[in-house]
Amino acid sequence: MPPPPPKAPVARHRKREGIVLRMFRELTPARGMLRDREDQAVVLEFESIGGLDNLPREGDVVEYRQFENESGHEAVNVTVKSRAQKETAQSKPSDSECWAAEQFLRRHALQRWEKGEPFTHSSMKGYRDSFARDTGKFKFPDDEATMKELGEAIAVFYRLSHAVPDTPKKLFLCEHPTDVYAFVEDIDVLGGYVGGVPNVMRNGPNDYDYELLKWRAKVLRKIFPGAEPRLMLYEACGMYQGHDIFKESYHLVWPMVMVDKQRAVAAREETVRLFEQMSEEEGHPLAKLLHRAKQKDENNSWERIFDISTTRPSIGARMPYSDKMSVTKLGRWVDNHRRVLPIAEIMFDFNNGEELPRCITVAGAEQRTPAEWAKNGMCRRSGKAVSYCTASIRAAEGQRNRRR
User: DSSP secondary-structure letter at 71?
Assistant: First the structure.
């Protein structure tokens, strides 16, 4: 029997479709593999995706135009036609999912706790927390499997509270950093008693203005010149019940910037110093942003906007999908109903020849499951290597002490 005839060569620039098999986001530029309708393997290269800032993910159906070069096939002008079906916040978890997640949390809850005893996580509800009664504290191992299971448990109870708002099984988890951890920041802009969230970082109800983040990334690159500028961005905007004012709040996790407490303090102090210095220049974009913030509340300053609490050893970082408890003027603990919700994973491209980097949205909130966002927002690490830091640690400590 004669061999089958060879396939006709692929026409250049013809629109084709394929399914993404795997993405390699850690490469520069990011690459991926897909399988086309004729069962041919094709390489995706992010740099050649015209005008598309959102990378595809595994399982997505994409449309692309193809060309050949010395290394094989590459895809250009990629358009995502349909997203892979993934679990969403709207899907109520089953009873078995809730039972398994609850047992996991209870298994790692401390039944008794003495001052000085180590723990990894705590609840803002304290001893009233239904998963860690009497202590409000947990001790999770830092291995990959446990962190993945914790992310899945967080997602289960977020989905439950989304479907059943009055459920008592709501999470108020805080993560306490390891000796070396991924750099975490909170950016808070105070609003007023009326008028809603200040929205200094937004152009409109749904469109984010990343100008502040671009300046933040530029300064952070100066402080940590060797670290990859990748950001997990979350928000927790709404009414701050303890003070009865509106608050614009963002939670930033820089997963490739490894710090200890001293470097975290130094990085924050150097950031505040440089932001204040640039804001003194007439017409500077940061001066305009600060003016917008002060119009909402005169107490807004870079010292206040870059929340100092994330650098204090005794205070943990609120975890993704966790809500906040605060004390009212009457001394009552109340739920703020301001969960930490994902916005996007962002890369900052400094090779564009401009003063500020280009923001590349690697994944939007809807492009990953709640379990993935929960895990991506964790800062604890098992390694001991810290990122090279140009800020003066000793000077930062002294400056911080003077401001107390």
Answer: T
Choose from 61-70, 171-180, 353-362 the range with maximum mean pLDDT.
171-180
Q: Report the alpha-carbon distance of residue 76 to residue 65 in Å, rounded.
A: 5
Per-residue pLDDT at 77 exceeds 70? no
Token pair 């809807």: residue: 366
Asked whether the beta carbons of 214 and 347 are under 8 A apart, the reply is no
User: pLDDT grade, residue 240 (50/70/90)?
Assistant: confident
257 sits in the region (left: phi over 0; alpha: psi -120 to 50; else beta) called beta
Q: How far apart are CA 198 and CA 297, in angstroms?
A: 9
Question: CATH number, domain at 70?
Answer: 2.40.50.140
- What does the block give as tokens for 386? 């810290």
Q: Are residues 295 and 335 in the same domain?
A: yes
Give the β-pairing of 181-190 and 325-327.
unpaired
Q: Tell me the residue range of the domain where 39 lies.
A: 15-82
Q: Residue 329's beta-bridge partner residues?
A: none
Query: Is-contact 303 273, C-beta < 8 A?
Result: no
H-assigned helices in 65-128: 95-107
Are 386 and 264 in contact by the 8 Å Cβ rule? The answer is: no
Q: How confident is the model at residue 124 (pLDDT cuts 50, 70, 90)?
A: very high
Classify residue 377 as exposed, middle or buried by CB count within 10 Å of its CB (0-12, 13-18, 19+).
buried
pLDDT of 199 reads: 79
> Do residues 208 and 333 both lie within one domain?
yes
Number of domains forming the structure of the chain: 3
Instruction: Judge whether residue 71 has pLDDT over 90.
Output: no
Give a yes or no: residue 248 inside a domain. Answer: yes
Please give the residue that has the higher pLDDT: either 135 or 351.
135
Pair (159, 303) in one structural domain: no
Instruction: Calculate the average pLDDT of the chain.
Output: 82
